[in-house]
Amino acid sequence: MKKYLNKKGSALILVLSSLIILLALGTVVTMLSAANFSMSRKYSDWSKEYYRLDYAAQKRLSELDKNVLISSENMARYYLQNGCYQYDNAGSIPAASGIPPNISSAIGQNLQTIIHDEWIRIDAILNPPPPREDGSGDSETEGEETETDALFEGLTLVERQAKYDHEM
User: Which residue range forms the structural domain that includes residue 66?
Assistant: First the structure.
C-alpha cells in the first residue's frame, strides 16, 4: 500500500468545509430571524386586536353603567330614602309623593309584597311588642331594659335609622 504524502489540495478541502459550515450557520440564523420576525408580527397583530377589543368592552361597560346602573341606583336610593318599602303593594305607593313612574312598574306587585313582608319582619325584630298587662310576655328580657331599647323606644325603623345616622 502506498501512502500519499502529498498535501496539495488540503487547503482547498479546509476552505470548502469552512465555507459549508459558515453557509449552514448563515442559513440557521436567517431562518431564526425570519421566525422571530413572524412571531413579532403576530404579537403586534394580537396586541392591536387585544387593545381594540379592550376599548370596545370598556365602552360597552361605560354605556351599561350610564344607561342602566346609574338610573337603577338612583331609583333604589329614592325607593329607600322615601320609605316606599312600607307600602304593602306597588299600587298603594302614592303617586303624589314625587315617585318616578318607572319605580312602580320596575318593582311589580310580587317584589313589592316581598320587600314589604321583609320590612315587617325586620321591624318586628327591632321593635318587639310591649308585654301584656296580664304579665305574660317575654320572660327572658322582662324587667331588663337595654341601652338600645331606651335609645330607640317607640321609634319606627326609619326614625331609628335617621337617629342612628345622626349620632354617627
Answer: 16-128+153-167
Amino acid in the structure at residue 116:
H
Rg (CA), the chain: 41
Specify if 113 maps to a domain: yes
* pLDDT tens-digit map of 85-131: 777 666 666 655 555 555 556 666 667 777 777 777 777 777 777 77
Q: How far apart are CA 2 and CA 6, in angstroms?
A: 12
Q: What is the pTM of this model?
A: 0.39
Instruction: Give the chain's domain count.
Output: 1
| Residues listed for the chain | 168
Helices 101-126 and 70-81 pack at an angle, to 10 degrees, of 50
Q: Could you tell me which of 135, 130, 125, 134 has the C-alpha nearest to residue 157?
A: 125
Q: How many CA atoms lie within 13 A of 99 on its CB side?
A: 25
Q: If you ran DSSP here, which 8-state letter would residue 83 be given? A: T
